[in-house]
């Protein structure tokens, strides 16, 4: 047998472990200048983290280039195979939302690596953080390119063409900013290690980057899986960075109290934000209603409950860390018993005029699937979606203002998803101001976790909530048509809306600004704050009782 | 016969308002047409001055928002004007970096197969072991500083440019490290891989360079770091060492592998310098803040230039070590100084008249 060329040309080289050791030895302890910790943390490190992946840049770059070649080749193949002839518009429309949001958290994660590498001692994991930094730049720009590709090839580019502007303005995308800004602000370790790596990347990228692409493929979209499964293949490195840093943090018992706080905050926020958005897109953006298709609840059980909670979070208890099992259970209950995803989809569709994508109505096939997967669904949501379908014709009353029995919800001050599970709404005062929250966990996050002191311990590095957090406050008292104009969600003819509550691609079947005149938007929170204490109590009680939908 | 489809979601399947709106329309391209680089980079990092309706919604404890112009002493009328001349985004970055790694791999593999190190001059081997190896720590330090700096810019264009700069520096530091590790066993006499770090830490020749690198690593102002690294430290010290020394003498001492590794860094540096110069030029000529910015830039020049000149001078003994002399230190230093003056002059910073200007 002939000797293979690789054997003939093989050369002795350093092992990967040796290569990693030499590279970590590039660092040194400075003696001429005191290194500044630009980003504060209340955590302490007594031990530098190890590098579990042991990858070096000279193997990383060619590997990533090859991955890119496959991605871009597949996009070309998608076009040659006329992917857009068969793709489901219902699905692609939701990509206008998803791909408007996701590049920002991605690039925030790149910035996050600057913070983490600045704070974490030692040089062994520096390469891990470096790879993640470059990966995140990859993710952000590859996703922007995918979006451009949809814009160029999908039947209705409107919404894609204003994507980053829309991201800054839409009533739904603030939720995504709450997600991404959490990676780059406040306590350095809270933001970069716990919130980003330990929870968002280790747990929720599975629903974001694995479950969702699978759904895309079922809707004729082969581009999203191509890009996002490639993205997800980078995530294992980030999960490794996260775990190694976490082990280093855990090593100092003084950090346990902060870790318990931060895992609690991060898990609940990821649940509230990612499950709201991805759950809605998977369940309401699909046309695939085969009974064997997994529901979001089933996916959540697999990815979050079994894979993450049981296999990752629970074992942390052996290090003496308290895990909030009740929160995991509560999140599960919100999905399976309290209709969190369905209520979110209902809210998104209620606000369709201030979105920048189309939301298709549900039909009988959808109803049947929902009833099969979520018994009792029709009684709670069927009539509302029938109303939605009826009101999707231009000239109808926008459903948010129609007499359906639906009560426009309060926003949660923390996660910024509204208080959709009405009975769970919590009200509290912080610094003398009244706020509404979707859950006790979100109230705790604002009032207890994001504060200068935690359980008697000073936490000067912890972040604060800021800005005009509630979108409705910005447009309180405005006419709906003026809002949409101000948002820039109008097509270039100056009248046709970017968003539509249907998938009609004929001018005469599309809504225009004129159809929105005469409807005033109000901020439920500002109205609540303006009430007398008695009225406030009455309003809150009434709100918690929920609403009853009737057929119009 | 043409096939007609009852239902299609292809572009052009129906014509209605904006059916043909197939360009990102929320920003103005720099040139006549938007580039792919602009499309995938502009505005991904939002800004309350543009579209961020509700402002930043999580702040640091002291109220500083996620991105704040206070992270640098330089100011801009419009941070969004900047575009990096190298137009790098993920795909082009990986292509270039992978290309460099493949080039180095092939050159070194071929050299090793030819037992190239056997032809290295003994004096040169000592230089490689002690000084070329020491320089990898300086390169790494700059990479670390830039990795931190890429957090703070006010636009995606600025931050991604600093990010790719960090990526290039860290890659080169690793390339040099692993190149020396690869060839170390090929030498007949032991090649001490730890000698480079010892020289970096204690050899008087390198201490001013180390001081300079540590100072820029510790600087809290991200644009101070970016400016000082690309416009002063690189041309005055590291490029001086790479171009003015290693590239000149290695081949003459039988080493045709090291220049391949080092040449990649030279190519990286020229790209990074141009990117940085365009940003600095934009800020130095800002209609509103130009004068104030030039003052700050001048202060930075005088904070780093004397240190860099000192560091360069302290490297001079290395020029005496090789067996065969080519470019003397004074000539190399003269070229480096002229380069620094030229780039500073091009961006509108004058060194005439000294520190007071």
Question: What's the layout of helices and strands?
Answer:
The complex is a heterodimer of chains A (552) and B (357).
Chain A: H1 5-9, H2 16-24, H3 57-80, H4 83-86, H5 89-101, H6 103-119, H7 126-153, H8 163-169, H9 174-181, H10 188-218, H11 223-250, H12 256-284, H13 296-313, H14 325-336, H15 340-350, H16 364-373, H17 377-390, E1 426-430, E2 433-437, H18 440-449, E3 453-454, E4 457-458, E5 464-465, H19 471-474, H20 480-487, H21 524-530, H22 533-545
Antiparallel strand pairs in A: 1-2, 3-4
Helix pairs in contact in A: 3-11, 5-7, 5-8, 6-7, 6-9, 6-10, 7-11, 9-12, 10-11, 10-12, 10-13, 12-14, 12-15, 12-18, 13-14, 15-17
Chain B: H1 36-41, E1 58-59, H2 90-113, H3 122-149, H4 156-183, H5 195-202, H6 204-218, H7 222-249, H8 258-284, H9 290-314, H10 316-320, H11 329-346
Helix pairs in contact in B: 2-4, 2-8, 3-4, 3-5, 3-6, 3-7, 4-8, 5-6, 6-7, 6-9, 7-8, 7-9, 7-11
CATH superfamily of chain A: Ribonucleotide Reductase, subunit A
The number of helical runs of chain B is 11
User: What is the CATH third-level topology name of chain B?
Assistant: Ribonucleotide Reductase, subunit A
Mean pLDDT of chain B: 95
The total count of helices of chain A amounts to 22
Provide the succession of SSEs of chain A: HHHHHHHHHHHHHHHHHEEHEEEHHHH
Tell me the β content of chain B: under 5%
Task: Indicate the percent of residues in helices of chain A.
Answer: 55-70%
**C-alpha end-to-end distance of chain B:** 78 Å
CATH architecture field of chain A = Orthogonal Bundle
Principal-axis shape of chain B: globular
**What's the CATH topology label of chain A?**
Ribonucleotide Reductase, subunit A
Gross geometry of chain A: globular
């Amino acid at each position: 047998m002939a000797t293979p060329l690789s054997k003939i040309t093989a050369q002795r080289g350093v092992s990967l472990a040796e290569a990693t050791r030499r590279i970590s030895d590039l660092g040194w302890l400075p003696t001429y200048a005191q290194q500044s910790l630009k980003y504060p943390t209340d955590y302490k490190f007594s031990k530098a983290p190890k590098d579990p992946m042991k990858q070096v840049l000279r193997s990383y770059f060619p590997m990533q280039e090859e991955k890119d070649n496959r991605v871009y080749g597949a996009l070309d193949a998608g076009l040659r195979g006329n992917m857009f002839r068969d793709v489901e518009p219902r699905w692609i429309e939701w990509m206008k939302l998803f791909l408007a949001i996701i590049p920002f958290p991605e690039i925030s994660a790149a910035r996050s690596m600057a913070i983490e590498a600045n704070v974490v001692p030692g040089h062994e994991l520096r390469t891990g953080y470096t790879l993640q930094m470059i990966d995140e730049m990859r993710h952000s720009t590859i996703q922007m390119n995918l979006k451009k590709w949809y814009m160029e090839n999908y039947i209705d580019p409107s919404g894609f063409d204003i994507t980053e502007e829309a991201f800054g303005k839409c009533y739904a995308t603030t939720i995504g900013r709450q997600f991404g800004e959490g990676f780059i602000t406040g306590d350095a370790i809270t933001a970069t290690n716990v919130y980003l790596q330990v929870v968002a990347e280790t747990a929720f990228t599975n629903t974001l980057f694995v479950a969702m692409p699978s759904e895309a493929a079922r809707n004729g979209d082969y581009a999203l899986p191509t890009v996002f499964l490639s993205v997800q293949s980078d995530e294992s490195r980030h999960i490794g960075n996260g775990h190694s840093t976490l082990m280093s943090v855990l090593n100092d018992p003084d950090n346990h109290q902060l870790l318990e706080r931060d895992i609690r905050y991060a898990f609940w926020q990821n649940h509230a934000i990612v499950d709201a958005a991805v759950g809605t897109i998977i369940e309401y953006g699909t046309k695939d209603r085969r009974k064997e298709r997994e529901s979001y609840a089933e996916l959540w059980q697999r990815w979050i409950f079994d894979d993450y909670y049981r296999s990752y979070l629970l074992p942390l208890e052996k290090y003496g860390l308290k895990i909030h099992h009740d929160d995991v259970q509560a999140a599960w209950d919100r999905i399976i018993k309290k209709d969190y995803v369905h209520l979110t989809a209902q809210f998104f569709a209620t606000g369709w005029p201030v979105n920048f994508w189309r939301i298709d109505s549900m039909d009988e096939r959808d109803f049947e699937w929902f009833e099969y997967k979520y018994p009792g669904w029709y009684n709670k949501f069927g009539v509302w979606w029938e109303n939605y379908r009826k009101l999707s014709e231009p000239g109808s009353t926008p459903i948010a203002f129609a007499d359906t029995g639906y009560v426009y919800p309060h926003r949660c001050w923390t996660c910024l998803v509204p208080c959709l599970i009405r009975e769970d709404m919590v009200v509290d005062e912080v610094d003398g101001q009244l706020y509404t929250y979707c859950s006790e966990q979100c109230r705790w996050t604002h009032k207890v976790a994001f504060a200068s002191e935690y359980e008697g311990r000073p936490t000067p590095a912890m972040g604060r909530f800021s800005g005009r957090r509630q979108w409705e406050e910005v447009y309180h008292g405005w006419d709906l048509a003026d809002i949409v104009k101000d948002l820039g969600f109008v097509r270039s003819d100056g009248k046709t809306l970017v968003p539509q509550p249907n998938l009609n691609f004929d001018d005469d079947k599309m809504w225009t600004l004129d159809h929105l005149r005469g409807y005033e938007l109000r901020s439920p929170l500002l109205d609540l704050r303006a009430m007398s204490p008695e009225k406030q109590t009455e309003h809150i009680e009434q709100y918690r009782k929920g609403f009853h939908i009737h057929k119009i | 016969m043409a096939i007609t489809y009852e239902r299609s979601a292809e572009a052009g399947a129906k014509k209605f308002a904006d059916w043909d709106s197939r360009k990102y329309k929320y920003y103005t391209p720099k040139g006549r047409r938007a580039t792919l680089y602009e499309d995938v980079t502009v505005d991904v990092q939002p800004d309350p001055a543009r579209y961020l309706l509700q402002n930043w919604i999580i702040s640091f404890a002291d109220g500083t928002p996620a991105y704040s112009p206070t992270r640098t002493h330089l100011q801009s009328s419009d941070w969004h004007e900047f575009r990096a001349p190298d137009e790098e985004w993920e795909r082009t970055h990986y292509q270039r970096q992978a290309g460099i790694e493949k080039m180095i791999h092939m050159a070194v593999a071929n050299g090793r197969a030819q037992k190239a190190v056997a032809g290295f001059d003994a004096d040169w081997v000592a230089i490689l072991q002690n000084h070329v190896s020491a320089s990898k720590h300086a390169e790494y330090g700059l990479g670390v500083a830039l990795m931190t700096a890429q957090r703070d810019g006010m636009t995606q264009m600025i931050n991604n440019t600093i990010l790719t700069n960090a990526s290039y520096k860290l890659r080169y530091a690793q390339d040099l490290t692993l190149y020396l590790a690869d060839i170390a066993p090929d030498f007949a006499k032991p090649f001490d891989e730890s000698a480079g770090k010892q020289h970096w830490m204690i050899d008087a020749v390198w201490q001013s360079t180390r001081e300079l690198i540590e100072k820029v690593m510790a600087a809290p102002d991200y644009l101070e770091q970016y400016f000082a690294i690309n416009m002063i430290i690189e041309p005055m010290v590291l490029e001086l060492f790479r171009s003015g020394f290693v590239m000149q003498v290695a081949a003459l001492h039988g080493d045709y592998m090291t220049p391949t590794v080092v040449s990649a860094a030279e190519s990286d540096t020229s790209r990074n310098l141009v990117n940085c110069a365009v940003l600095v030029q934009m800020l130095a000529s800002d209609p509103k803040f130009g004068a104030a910015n030039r003052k700050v830039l001048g202060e930075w020049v005088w904070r780093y230039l004397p240190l860099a000149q000192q560091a360069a001078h302290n490297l001079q003994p290395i020029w005496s070590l090789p067996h065969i002399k080519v470019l003397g230190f004074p000539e190399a230093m003269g070229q480096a100084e002229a380069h620094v003056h030229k780039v500073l002059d091009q961006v509108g910073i004058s060194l005439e008249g000294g520190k007071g200007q």
